[in-house]
Amino acid sequence: MSRLRSSIPAAMIRSIAAPLAAGLAWLGRYGTQGFALSIFLGLALPQFSAAARPLLPVTIFCFTTVVFMRADLGIIGGLVRRPLKLLVAVAWLFLAPVLLIGAPLLLIGREALDPGLLLGLALLAAAPPVMSAPAVAIIYGFEPSLLIAGVIITTVCAPVVAPLLVELLAGAAVPLDRAALMLRLVLFIGGGVTLATLIRSWLGTERIRALKPNLDGFGVLMYFVFAIAAMDGVTKAAMADPLRVLLFLGCAFLVALGGLAAGFLLLGGLRGAERFMIGYATGQRNMGLLVAALGAGVPPTTFLFFALAQFPIYLLPWLLRGLAGRIRRQDCAGA
Questions:
Q1: Could you tell me which of 125, 150, 181, 159 has the C-alpha nearest to residue 67?
Q2: What is this structure's pTM?
């Protein structure tokens, strides 16, 4: 009888977990479409945005944990043992966004920009690449090891490097508590790495690989929650000041597409897929990590720019599918 009672909770857990796992796997199969749909659902649900905004740090922490959990340490170790390609990718991911954004700032002048937009552009350039970039590479059918290694290294270095770059780009026009930002980034990233290590030791590498569709679906779900939270105030701002919204949106897409083009055209020593995805990660930055670390200190116009900078992150994976497929075929033909 006791054996029967002990088996009932296990059966109940399995009956609940199976549909949930199937639902996540279904979401994972429609990754690029899910990303694109999420941003518009976030806009369509403004009544939930303010309530969901406190969940921004939670979603960022989940993204960080999942990326570190899925990293293939063996392949990354191979890249470290032959480090030239990895060093080029990491140096590019650190420096290219700073040059891409810093050069126009020098030409235009910081004083010519809204301080909130200036801080937003500085955060965009200083942040590590988006955590979803490796997932996008996997969805496209690209081998993601170089990109995963680049994202991990730049993210681990972010607590030290990002505050310095923000201060360099924003200058004295935007006051910033660099020490507080560093500490919060250490807690965010260190916590994610610790939790990912515990999960990897519990599940094992093979089990994590088998859960790929479920983890892809979990990523889409987290991006949906993130989109609702990030869209707080966007609809209201679009109605009140549409020209500002269009300016901020144009800047975000210009950086995203400029980074993609620069990486693909200038990183000639890498394969087509690697150049494409490093370029993608050049213009698609994890601003949410820095915004979450800054917390209530983010000015409203900076948060608006952060929200609008999500549109290329959500839409480009879907819009670039055809180009990614062509590059994959070219790489296969040249192999």
A1: 150
A2: 0.83
